[in-house]
């Protein structure tokens, strides 16, 4: 059975980190599901092009350049809304894969600021608007890194653990209010930018992450899952959904056809 269309009061969906990858794919998916999508990211040209694409396809999208780590900018953004129905906290990312002994503290700080404080900023600013809709959904796009560690990943793992705990605690604190808190935790997802950004543009090193893996997840796979979770009936909360490719049994166990 197809999911019911969102109510008028809950029809606006804000997606952070919408300039590429999972964020862009999620924006397309929510637009197809009937939401008016607000695209946020730092790269103005990317989100404006995506908004044009969605609008040309018959959807409704608006681009709003935003750095989620800038609280004043986030508050100004939030003031434009009376209500919204969905917030997808997708902005984040990884930097480096060094061991704890030699990891760059600036990489750790940047990952924590973007993944955790960025999610906190936008969620705090928009939570009253989600409550006002009478049927709000907060989605936190975390990672299997938030559920288990691996060598060389401590900085990213620490940030994603923080994001996971943020979602878990928020769900406890707002129970009884008309807002669901959904966490989607993807494993190995192959996108154009994630690994490339992590390894500072080193394409060869980025490619090795997926080497021999027949079918890693795609951005569309994760976006379809997010859209499915958001469009469940109001009384159904997908607390935590872990999504991995068949070839990945854990963060450290991956089948590679070499």
Q: Outline of this structure?
A:
Helices cover 41% and strands 15% of the residues.
Describe this structure in words.
The chain is an alpha/beta fold and 258 residues long. 41% of the residues lie in helices and 15% in strands. It has eight helices and seven strands; from the N terminus they run E-H-E-H-E-H-E-H-E-H-E-H-H-H-E. The protein has helices spanning 21-32, 44-56, 71-78, 105-133, 154-173, 194-198, 203-209, 219-230, and strands at residues 12-15, 36-41, 60-65, 86-89, 136-141, 179-186, 240-243. Strands 3-2-1-4-5-6-7 form a seven-stranded parallel β-sheet, with helices on both faces. The chain starts with 11 loop residues before the first strand and ends in a 15-residue tail after the last strand.
SSE blueprint:
Elements: E1 12-15, H1 21-32, E2 36-41, H2 44-56, E3 60-65, H3 71-78, E4 86-89, H4 105-133, E5 136-141, H5 154-173, E6 179-186, H6 194-198, H7 203-209, H8 219-230, E7 240-243
Parallel strand pairs: 1-2, 1-4, 2-3, 4-5, 5-6, 6-7
Helix pairs in contact: 1-8, 3-4, 4-5
Descriptive key words:
258 residues, alpha/beta, 7-stranded parallel sheet, 7 strands, globular
